[in-house]
């Protein structure tokens, strides 16, 4: 399957994580071919950390893993959707989701 994925010039593809039960969007990260393979084979979410330049097993240090139910690609094969069940909060801030800061028209420059 990974041969069909359109990785960018750095070998990465955006990956959106969605709660398999509620549909809530939990986080967005990047995957490379190796992290996608590990996600598909292990049943847990793996990503590529751009800041650390290394594979990242979500929850390895925090204990807040994401148990993967399904992995989808979009119509252009350039974005991954991971449907999973989080074990604990997903965001490094302790929030359930990384998307907890609502923007409004007043936030526009």
Summarize the structure.
This protein has 109 residues and is mainly β. The chain has one helix and six strands. It has one domain (2-94): Roll (Ubiquitin-like (UB roll)).
Task: Explain the overall architecture.
This protein is mainly beta and 109 residues long. The protein has a single domain, classed as Roll (Ubiquitin-like (UB roll)). Helix content is 9%, strand content 34%. It has one helix spanning 33-42, and strands at residues 13-19, 25-31, 46-49, 54-57, 66-73, 80-86. The strands form 2 sheets. It has a 4-stranded mixed sheet with strand order 2-1-6-5, covered by helices on one side. The protein is globular.
Main sheet: strand order: 2-1-6-5
- Kindly name the structural category: mainly beta
The appropriate CATH architecture is Roll
The outline comes out as globular
Number of domains: 1
Average pLDDT, all residues:
95
- The CATH class is Alpha Beta
Helix and strand sequence: EEHEEEE
CATH-assigned fold name: Ubiquitin-like (UB roll)
Indicate the topology.
Blueprint lengths: L12 E7 L5 E7 L1 H10 L3 E4 L4 E4 L8 E8 L6 E7 L23
Parallel strand pairs: 1-6
Antiparallel strand pairs: 1-2, 3-4, 5-6
What are its keywords?
single chain; 109 residues; mainly beta; Ubiquitin-like (UB roll); four-stranded mixed sheet; two-stranded antiparallel sheet; 6 strands; 9% helix
